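Trying the structure run again after the queue cleared.
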Amino acid sequence: MTGTDTRRSSMRIRLRVGIATAFLLTVVPSIAGMLAYLHMENSRSAMAVATDAIGRTSASIVEDLRGMLSPVARVAEATAMFGKVDRNGLRRIESLRYFNDAVVNLPQLEALSIGFTSDGAFFQLTRLDAGESRYGPKGEITPPETQLGLRMLDASSGEMADSYLYLRRWGQVVAVDRGPVTYDPRTQPWFRAAWRQPGVTLSDAFVFPSSGRPGLTMSHRVATDDGVPIGVVGADVSLDALARLLDAKRIGRSGSIFLVDENGRVICHNRPELLVHTGLRGPELAPAAEFPDPVVAAAVARWKREGQDRFVAALGPLGKEYIVDFARVPNDIGNGWTVVTAVEVDEFIAPITRATTNMVFVGVAVIAALILVVLWLSHRLTRPLQAIVAETDRIRRFELEGPLDIRSRILEVDELAKAMDTMKGGLSSFGAYVPKDLVRSMIRTGKASQLGGERRPLTILFTDIKGFTASSEGMPPEEVMLRLSAYFQELTGCIHAQGGTVDKFIGDAIMAFWNAPLADEDHIGRACLALLACRDANQRLNERLVQAGEAPMPTRFGLHTGDVVVGNVGSADRMQYTALGTHVNLASRVEGLNKNYGTQLLVTGAVEQAVRDRFLFRPVDLAAPSGLSKPIPLFELVGTRGREVGENGGLFAPSPELLDECRRWQDAYYLYRARRWDEALAAFRALAGTMANGTLAELYIDRCLHLLADPPGPEWDGAERYTKK
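Done. Tokens:
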């Protein structure tokens, strides 16, 4: 190399360094300033969004609190009106069934009671947790299977008595206990408060003796139109449901949402286990100053000291900054309550800080890439040859990935690059037939489906063709496939017409469900209509098959409803939208029980209870299918009732003869359940010769004969327990 060439090379190197230096001095400060500005603006925006989100959360909690208390207030008002219309109506135990309906249907209602002014009589129905709640005159743990407690303090036996009934459900008594008469509702604060103002009166929060959880009492006086006192209705409201709601709406992982009453006590918190502590008088709600969460105590103390409803301050032993918002609850809902939301500032700022840090790294990478571009531009004339040399070395190692994109204004270099690209393409095509040593992963674009699901109530259907394996054993596979395809076409059409989702075909069986993926408020009713339509479609199909000289495909159906998990299950590269849970398994078991009873449309008591006013059902049995410990009622779906409204609903109305048969069957079935087996036997025998389902009648005839010959003890519950699927 000559001296001139050396100087030119040295100048070229210095120019490339100068260009890179100028680029760095210009771009780096600009990017740094832009990142600092973005971080500052994003932090300010995040705080504004946080403040707005906290305010909206507080407002929604107030509305949710209103929605939780309003139904209970209506129940108290309705009960008071009932007591006003019929003064002694609520003293009769059969009238207390209304209490059961209210307690069962309102999860926030812990207990419903009424106390009478004249004699201090008191009736109360309380929700209990078996083996956990304390109940009865001695406050002992409730017996197993107890769900409800009925307390009756009255003089119906001639003298005042205090009786406690432990119930599995209404009408099913587990145990009875009695204690001395030491309670007078007329002396209680909730009773007296009801006479101080009209309408519903809300008590202060306190700890329920039975559950040990916080709650409050809504009371409403009962009086004649002339103002003569009759009594007071009391409704105990549990705050556990509100605690779960607060936990669902808290913002961030470290956020806290709680309620403070006018006495400075924390009456509800998103962590309900912190609410109750043992004081001098037993379990009680803690004042904010003594609350186990130091953030709560510090936030309330500052609020009382400075009077600001919204502030940002360092709270707790670690001194972390929190955004705190105090929103007062309207007086028509609570007694001076305040909703408090506390969220750690880092919950909002930390993501922005991380994003800024990531942007710094990305900016450094971009700058480095741009420097490479600048350097590339400085030696663009020599790069094609360097690229060709490098590509030659890769081809020698049989690395053929990526296109060869080399352009040059020099003709010979450009032709050489094209010739090498042609050679690389030929080698790459040949390489497609040669096993590679390395496994290359596929790059997927777009948003991929995610594994997981959600819990929601579904109505689940399972079907099965009776004797299909035996009837198709000698058929060619092609014919079996054609028969099944025609069969599936008929039944899935009925399911889809009622908004059902066909989940899968399991051999000759169908699994379908309602209320997913699209929500359907009437999923149980539409599933029953689909069942009746499938029954008729299956009958028409079988008639055509018999006329064509082919074997029919009689189908049995099982229907159940309950909470399951529905969503995507499988692996990352193979997913299926389906439902999982014990209620799915139970629906499958119910379908299999058809063969035991000779039925076709078998449903569970949960289905019957939900739509009994719209559909006609025949009671079949109280049974525990395989894998289920507790028995469930089973019913046969017969048809629609006269007032049922739905697509083609009138087509499934039963005939007068079938209605009479169902009535006679129900009478016989209830005789059987009442242990009047001799009368039930006569009734079943009278039905056996006329019922289309003789299998079911003969089954109960055999049971009656067995029970009459060998009567069971008082523990007999009439349930049939199956050990096989």
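The chain is about 40% helix and 25% strand. Worth checking whether this holds up in the mutant runs.
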